[in-house]
Amino acid sequence: MKKYILMIAALFTLGLATTSCDTMTNEPEGGDKIGDMAGHWEVTVDAVDEDGNVLYEDPYGMGVVDINTYATVNDDTDKMWLYDGSFYGLQLLVPIKLDARTFEVTNVPYDLAETGNTTLKGKIMPKAGRNLHGMPVDSICIEATFDDDPNGLIWRYSGIRYQGFTE
Question: pLDDT tens, position by position, for the chain (167 residues)?
Fold first, then answer.
């Protein structure tokens, strides 16, 4: 009898082991429809003039700040969210041109509380930046103005996609 109980326990364990390791899912492969426009970015923020020349390099001494771009809940291909929780508090939906990897808004509220308005232009450039090890990574550049900025400066966010490396 003991022999039969051990045999049944072994078969049960074998059956459990083979079914619990099933890696198949019903989820389709791939991510959202905006692809590599979505991401976590490490940028520096500088004040620039109309020609793009740096007037003040990192004027508030913030160093590297994080911004995020991500898909809408409907996974639209013509707009994405832009979020900067560190510098100016950007949180807005921006229209995008997916093929050109660009986005632009003119005189729209820059946060959900409608604190003020912004005009901004941005571009994501594949493999145009370099990480700490010199390897090519995606780069982002955004130029923005804010109607409640007392100095009326143009702010340039520029940096690379987050790679997980620390200095």
Answer: 777 677 776 666 666 565 555 455 555 555 789 988 999 999 999 999 999 999 999 999 999 999 999 999 999 999 999 999 889 999 999 999 999 999 999 999 999 889 999 999 999 999 999 988 899 999 999 999 999 999 999 999 999 999 886 65
pTM: 0.80
- The CATH number of residue 100's host domain is 2.40.128.220
Is residue 65 in some structural domain? yes
The verdict on residue 157 lying in a domain is: yes
- What is the number of domains present in the chain? 1
**Residue 62 belongs to domain spanning:** 35-161
- For residue 95, tell me if it sits in a domain: yes
Q: Are 77 and 92 in contact (CB under 8 A)?
A: no
* Residue 104 · residue 84 · CB < 8 Å: no
Question: Going along 33-161, which residue ranges are E strands?
Answer: 39-48, 54-56, 65-70, 79-83, 91-97, 102-109, 117-130, 136-146, 154-161
Residue given tokens 């639209």 in the structure block? 76
Residue 73 falls inside a structural domain? yes
